[in-house]
Amino acid sequence: MTEAQRTDGFVLTPAGFIRGVLEHQGGRITRIEGEAVTEYEVRHGSQDLPLILPGFIDVHVHGGGGRDTMEGGDAARQIARLHVRHGTTSLLATTMTAPMDEIRAALTALGPVCREREPQAARVLGVHLEGPYINPGKLGAQPDFAKAASISEVQALDALAPIRLITLAPELPGNLDLTEQLRAAGFQVQIGHTLGTYEDGVEALERGAGGFTHLFNAMTGLHHREPGMVGAALAHARYAEIIPDLLHVHEGAVRVALRSIPCLFCVTDSTAAAGMPDGEYGLGRHRVTKCMGGVRLPDGTLAGSTLTMDQALRNLVGLGLEMADASRRVSTYAADYLGLNDRGRLAVGAWADFVVLDRDLQVQGVVVEGDGIDLA
């Protein structure tokens, strides 16, 4: 077995920060010891020690580094290499609505990537199937290939690469029954790209849907007499994704969601343009343009983001969240949502997935399953 490795600093444990040491061996955390400290001491104390947080988990990643999940080939490996440099230690490769032969081709390429982690890359835990089982009237930036769903089709796709999360519109015929079938088969279901009502959302949650895809975006909004899908989320959800780039969602709406949804967690919804200069990139069948910090279709529709999870953390702290709370929203809650009790937290026996940050919350080091990432 490899020799134990040690990292010293302010370690964020499930109980709070300690000034101490984290040791790992064989890919797992073997020891965490130290003296409890306050978050104020961590951020403003005299000791210039690094912060050690759980590695970030992003369940909605379309691309990065100039590559798009739907390309197939080695695209997912390149995407995982880009995001790990920003502290993401595990992710879900996210597909686009497309003809089924294109979705099958993408998942065929993703299968080997999910089975074995690429060196110097984040762990690809599986697939987030964002469509094609969505409302054609609320595509957002999704191509117009929405279709009816079936459990047999999902299971056939899952045989190509493990599907961990499925976005669907519950108001479409058969999708509420399908939600129950998918949950019984072990798939997590999210509500998204939907024109559904408040009542549709409530019933979908009762039928087993676990959360909402990029809350506020591509769903019916909140009105005091028609609460819509946003109202269902704010009133009833325990989990929901949100894109905290402060472009997709106004900071005031982010604050509303934080007060309403206990386990609101961050995703990037990142595209091939993440980590790249301004210009034109692919997003499934679409061509999108990165400029002024955003990614848009030719008609101006927001089309994913250029966000990375380290910036998501900084944005949350900038909104006034305590570091421990912000950390849970970029790691722990997503792990819990996927049923992973050995990721998204720093505890003995958990995977040695962690990120080392300076006091400005800039990434100084990343470890994935015990392997250090070269950030040079």
Automatic annotation (TrEMBL):
Its EC number is 3.5.1.25. The keyword Zinc-finger does not apply. Belongs to the metallo-dependent hydrolases superfamily. NagA family. Residues 52-370 form the Amidohydrolase-related domain. The lineage of its organism: Bacteria, Pseudomonadati, Pseudomonadota, Betaproteobacteria, Burkholderiales. It comes from Roseateles subflavus. Keywords: Carbohydrate metabolism, Hydrolase, Metal-binding. InterPro entries: Amidohydro-rel, GlcNAc_6-P_deAcase, Metal-dep_hydrolase_composite, Metal_Hydrolase. This is N-acetylglucosamine-6-phosphate deacetylase. One of its GO terms (molecular function) is N-acetylglucosamine-6-phosphate deacetylase activity. The keyword Metal-binding applies. It is an enzyme of class 3 (hydrolase).
